[in-house]
Amino acid sequence: MEFILSQVSVWSYAFATLVHAVFGLYLVVAWRKGARGGFLIVATLVSALWAGASWAFSATGWIWLFQLACLLDVLRLGAWFGFLLALLSQPSQDSSESALPGWPRPWVLGVITLSAAGVLCLSVGIPVYGTPLRTWAATSLFSSVFGLVLLELFYRSVPERSRWGIKPVALALGGLFAFDVYLYADTLLFSRLHPVIWSVRGFAHTLTIPLVAVSASRNPEWTFRVSVSRHVVFHSTALAGSGLYLLTLAGAGYYMRYFGGEWGEALQLALTFGGALLLSVIAFSGAFRARLRVLLAKHFFAYRYDYRKEWLGVTQALSMAGDGLSLGESVVKALADLVESPGGGVWLRDANGEYSQQARLNMPHYALQEHENSEFARYLLEREWVVNLAELRGALVSPSEFPLPEWVSELSDMWLIVPLISSGVLVGFVVLLTPRTPVDVNWEVLDLLKMAGRQAASYFARMQAAEALLEARKFDAFNRMSAFVVHDLKNLVAQLSLMLRNAERHKDNPEFQADMLDTIRHVEERMRGLMAQLMEKTPINQRKPVHLKPLIERIVQSKRMFNPCPVFVAGAPDISVLAHSERLERILGHIVQNALDATSEHGSVVIELSQERNQACVTVRDTGSGMSSAFVREQLFKAFQTTKASGMGIGAYEVQQYVHELGGSLSVQSEVGSGTCFDVRLPIADYSRNAGNEAVAN
Prior knowledge:
The chain has helices at 7-30, 35-60, 63-88, 104-124, 132-157, 167-190, 195-207, 209-218, 230-259, 264-283, 286-300, 307-319, 327-338, 375-383, 389-393, 443-506, 510-534, 548-560, 581-598, 629-634, 651-661, 685-697, and strands at residues 344-349, 354-361, 369-371, 387-388, 414-422, 425-433, 544-547, 567-571, 576-579, 605-612, 615-622, 665-671, 675-683. With 698 residues, it is an alpha+beta fold. α12 runs antiparallel to α13 (327-338) and α16 (443-506) runs antiparallel to α17.
């Protein structure tokens, strides 16, 4: 049989061995202990052994390997017969009885025995029917024809409404048996094994594996957990179609060049370029891809969608909002991709209860609004229906049953309206444009759109809640700053009031007049600074080196003319800290002012400025009334807690907050009747710069 050996047969059976082995192992992993699935596994693995023996014979030429392949071929045929018998033995959907008549089982045993006898005749050279080769071909031909009869019996026993799941495997086995009939009939007629037919037999058997896999995934009662990836099927089909197209193009170009004379080569080149250009246009056509996906989903899968993939795709599209697309555009794209729509728009509710277009994708802007109390909005919220405008236009649904707004009739390119509902609230709705290819909007499509709409609504609700929280925080920050400013204004007004009361007695005193002008100038500057902070013209937290000695001197000077209690300054080395000058002066002045308010005119207030290592220390001691430890611990630094009749209770709170912002510390020691000591420690300016540089470097 040297004439059979060729590179075609080697590659053909090697490919068949690999594919059958991989598919058989996959079925073993996916098997859930079912009889029909067990027969399918045996048939696949025996087919792999048969293909392997045929490949070994093609590669070596050893005749005993050919005989082994023929014997394995009989076992393979018996395994497929057993699989068909197992399918025939299952109860029909209309009754609990099996659809299998009594005659096939003994016939299967007889046919297998006859085929095995034919192989034996071929192996030992017994010419029962002419030659041993013709004897083997005759028995194998009879077995293949019996396979077609058994397959036809199986197909007719399945109700027509249930044939969708078994059509692929029926086509696959029909193709196998028909190819074998052709091979053995040719061998029987011409008394020789045709080398080309025998060589491509491995490729032919391999091409049936995808059909078997599709049926295994469509029939869970075979107890396989087999999943066929829609993504792989789509790209495989597109690749196969492209390959067939290119082969056709190449064949047409060859004959055009062969018969075209002097124009042949030019026509071939023009045809090749035009064909490649057309293939590129088709490959990048969204409408073509949409039609192919719908075709494959409709005819090859039990369900149109791979829900795990679609769920992950929608989640990824929504979570990647901001990467070139806004959240609204991402929602439109995610919903549109589910139904092959080119785009659409999102209508969201604003603070006034009006739904207006907030985002769009491949859709013009429409200045259309819908109020939340309209019948249409209430209908979407109560029914949570996906509105199919194509059905309404086709009078499939009575318009009286649907309270559509007037603007719907003005937009002919609208197709679906998907409500966005989160926690019982209609956040908005998405309007999708007419799809690239006709799509049957059945229950599966509607449920998937509802699921995606709810998920998108949760993202919109979270976005709106985040925006509301951010706005509330802005108002909170503004109110906090306003409270500090009002507190400072109160102190400034108190200074002006005290100055006016003393003006009657000291208006003729030149020193008092000079102090009064300085105080008015200082108050005016402070008020302008406070107004600038409110208007955000100057950053309140901008930090610059501030020398503490002149700052404390200004504080003491501003307090002396209004308080009879003496203020003393001790130490006062030249130390600078990083801070906002006016704000630091305000909080230190607040500490000094509280000390003066708590101390009688016979007492004293002492301010000490010193340096300990890398910290500047500002200590304010007074001999006033003091505070209890419980008050210091529980009330002193709480906002709006005060013991003064005209106080606001935020001065000490601001002191503590700002000292901590600067990276410093604040401690208080006080005793009722013995006075109070405030100790403020702040990082000096040089150390603060070095620490900041080290943090940046790390």
